[in-house]
């Protein structure tokens, strides 16, 4: 892989962190960044998947290192920031992509465990990692934060209560980051994919109201399944110089579902 500039991308290789990069959108984004010459820190709970992504990058001539851990743990978050700086000397781009689905449960069906895990992984963990890397970006006077939101962050009928609340929270976090740091060289944006063909699995409660209510809405409005490459391409664009004036945006990648 060459580190020469590609479309919308600065000359020097960047230090990029991608979470949830063992599979799906995160893996594809990591491979795309590496193909541009960036060094990529691949972060995921799945040790085998992390190793495969790293190996695929290296086999193609790129630079990647892996780190396994749960991003709701402060020690793991701190290690991500430390390792990225140690490996690349800088943190230019962070892709907060790791996430889990809920069980499509309505509020009265959502127990504490489901709520707390979904909010922790989808909202608290991105907050923690963003907080950890911001000092490095602010010291450099530049940086890009890209979040994987969801169609569920744009509407109320695309998932259960926990996932919907978490992804609406991601959209709010992105907009607040844009306002707070736009004068200091740091941009924040999100993609909001519709249904995408990835390894993320939904296990709805068959006896619950949530799937019965939400299921027909998703089936009638979502159109075709997207591909991980389509969402990853949008992530790489938002991290590029071509998007240098894009800040605080939540970009639907959903074949027009949000326009229905």
Could you characterize what this model shows?
With 260 residues, the protein is of the alpha/beta class. The chain has a single domain (15-259), classed as Rossmann fold, CATH 3.40.50.720. Helix content is 44%, strand content 17%. It has helices spanning 24-35, 47-59, 74-88, 112-140, 161-181, 209-221, 228-238; strands at residues 15-19, 39-44, 63-68, 93-96, 143-148, 186-193, 196-197, 226-227, 250-253. It has a 7-stranded parallel β-sheet with strand order 3-2-1-4-5-6-9, sandwiched between helices. Strand 7 (196-197), helix 6 (209-221) and strand 8 (226-227) form a beta-alpha-beta unit. Mean pLDDT is 92; it is low at 1-10.
Q: How many domains, in number, for the residues?
A: 1
In percent terms, what proportion of residues is strand? 15-25%
How do the strands line up in the largest sheet? 3-2-1-4-5-6-9
Relative helix content: 40-55%
- The gross shape turns out to be globular
Task: Pick out the low-confidence regions.
Answer: 1-10
Beta strands, count? 9
Note the total helix count.
Answer: 7
Taking the alpha carbons of the first and last residues, their distance comes to 41 Å
Which CATH top level class fits? Alpha Beta
Mean pLDDT: 92
Give the full name of the CATH homologous superfamily: NAD(P)-binding Rossmann-like Domain
Content-based structural category: alpha/beta
Specify Rg, calculated over alpha carbons.
Answer: 18 Å
Biggest pleated sheet: 7 strands, parallel
H/E series: EHEHEHEHEHEEHEHE
The name CATH uses for the topology is Rossmann fold
Characterize the quaternary organization of these chains. Answer: single chain
Q: Which architecture would the CATH scheme give at its second level?
A: 3-Layer(aba) Sandwich
């Amino acid at each position: 892989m060459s580190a020469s500039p590609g479309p919308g991308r600065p000359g020097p290789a960047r230090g990029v962190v991608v979470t949830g990069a063992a599979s799906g959108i995160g893996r594809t984004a990591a491979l795309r960044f590496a193909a541009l010459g960036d060094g990529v820190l691949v972060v995921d709970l799945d040790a085998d998947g992390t190793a495969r992504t790293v190996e695929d990058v290296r086999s193609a001539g790129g630079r990647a290192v892996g780190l396994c851990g749960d991003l709701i743990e402060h020690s793991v978050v701190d290690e991500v920031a430390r390792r990225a700086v140690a490996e690349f000397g800088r943190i230019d781009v962070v892709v907060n992509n790791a996430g889990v689905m809920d069980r499509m449960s309505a509020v009265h069906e959502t127990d504490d465990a489901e709520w707390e895990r979904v909010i922790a992984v989808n909202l608290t963990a991105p907050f923690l990692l963003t907080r950890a890397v911001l000092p490095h970006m602010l010291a450099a006077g530049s940086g890009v934060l890209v979040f994987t939101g969801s169609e569920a962050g744009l509407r109320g009928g695309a998932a259960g209560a926990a996932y919907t609340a978490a992804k609406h929270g991601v959209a709010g976090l992105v907009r607040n980051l844009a306002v707070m740091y736009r004068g200091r060289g740091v941009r924040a944006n999100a993609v909001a994919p519709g249904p995408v063909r990835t390894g993320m699995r939904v296990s709805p409660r068959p006896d619950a109201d949530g799937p019965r209510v939400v299921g027909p809405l998703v089936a009638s409005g979502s159109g075709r399944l997207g591909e991980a490459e389509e969402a990853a391409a949008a992530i790489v664009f938002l991290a590029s110089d071509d998007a240098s004036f894009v800040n605080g945006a939540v970009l639907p990648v959903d074949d027009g579902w949000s326009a229905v």
